[in-house]
Amino acid sequence: MISISHVSKSFGVGSGSTLALDDVSLEVGRGEIFGVVGQSGAGKSTLIRTVNLLERPDVGTITVDGRVITSLADRDLRIARQSIGMVFQHFNLLSSRTVRGNVELALEVIGVDGRERRSRAGEILDLVGLAEKENAYPAQLSGGQKQRIGIARALAGRPSVLLSDEATSALDPETTRSILELLKTINRELDLTVLLITHEMDVVKTVCDSAALLEGGRVVEQGKLVELISTPGSRLAHDLFPLGDIPAGTTGAVVDITFSGGSADRPVIAQLARDHAIDVSILGATIETIAGNQAGRTRLELPGSPQTTAAAIADLRAQGLLVELVRDAA
Ligand SMILES: Nc1ncnc2c1ncn2[C@@H]1O[C@H](COP(=O)(O)OP(=O)(O)OP(=O)(O)O)[C@@H](O)[C@H]1O
Fold it and tell me: Could you give the CA distance from residue 153 to residue 150 in angstroms, rounded to a whole number?
């Protein structure tokens, strides 16, 4: 649905220039919620803004719903942008217009006539749960309600793609959850493809099907979450299941086991201790619902000889579990 191919973008010229995006390629499937994560300055905002050409890439192509956005002339680009809605961190609402007025404005801009505007704005406000606030002004609303208008406005042109630029970063955790829930609902009900950027792994965990990690303007990893969590060495998977540091005084080998799908229900650790006669210690554990599936990661200390550890790891792997040796015995 969105294809970003070998896109680079720099700001400034000469020795003072910054390469914000460096040969970025990403594929976002139709109907997916795709999250781009990365630290401050990684290039997330620049990347999302290239999708509707708020930033024009220096090189590379961007295709949205079969249309090569990067080669459209201005008039065609204006039309193409109607199918790409965008939600911003700081809402960007017009304070002089009511809730309804803000949504209708987005329809006015794309030439929808008065009657149709009223009926469509009503429908969208219903969808985002703000129908009873239609005559309120932005200043009278909470952050979460303001973001609901931001989302309603982005949906006005009946887009097939929604871009979300840190939509929940200015919100408290509970409001964040309700906005993420709303994103999921519109993704499902309107068959909307969502590309979001965030610096919060929780956002990815809660709503995304796929994710990419951006670092210094480059994509260092991308894929479906269900696949990433069973990919050895995946940094995104590690960030999805943070296990913290190895406790001081740990002397045995340390392994991380990732459980997903059916393996989450098996008594793996008890069996390991029994079959290999080792006193397994659990150093950390986390269970998450990722892309709708329960998955978890457990960090174990395996005391004993290197041979016992190797046999235990081989046994776990033979059961189809992802096992990573974090540290050999001290
Ligand atoms: N308009 C601009 N002019 C000059 N440099 C820019 C501009 N926009 C972005 N940059 C630079 O490009 C790099 C990537 O910035 P970008 O805002 O895309 O990162 P980000 O991952 O979104 O960061 P944050 O999470 O802090 O918003 C940074 O080094 C930034 O300073």
Answer: 5
215 and 236 Cβ atoms separated by less than 8 Å: no
ipTM of the complex: 0.96
The dihedral built from the CA positions of residue 248, 253, 259 and 265, taken in this order, carries a sign that is negative
Residue-wise pLDDT for 163-212, tens only, equals 999 989 888 999 999 999 999 999 999 999 999 999 888 899 889 999 99
H-helix segments, 140-200: 143-155, 173-189
pLDDT tens digits for range 111-145: 888 888 999 999 999 999 989 999 999 999 999 99
Q: 287 CB contacts (<8 Å, ≥6 apart)?
A: 264, 294, 295, 296
Ligand 1 site, residue 43, Cβ cutoff 6 A: yes
Residue 29 CA to ligand 1 centre (angstroms): 26
Q: How many helices (H) and strands (E) does the chain have?
A: 11, 14
Q: What is the CA angle 78-84-87, rounded to 5?
A: 115
Among protein residues, the one with the nearest Cα to ligand 1's atom 2 is 11
Per the listing, tokens 């793609």 go with: 161
Give me the count of residues in the chain: 330
Give the mean pLDDT of 294-310: 87
Q: Which of 226, 192, 230 is nearest to 211 (CA)?
A: 226
- In testing the pocket of ligand 1, which one of 8, 13, 17, 18 has its CB within 8 Å of the most ligand atoms? 18
C-alpha angle 59/61/66, rounded to 5°?
170
Contacts of 279 (CB under 8 A, 6+ apart): 273, 303
Cβ of residue 45 lying under 6 Å from some atom of ligand 1: yes
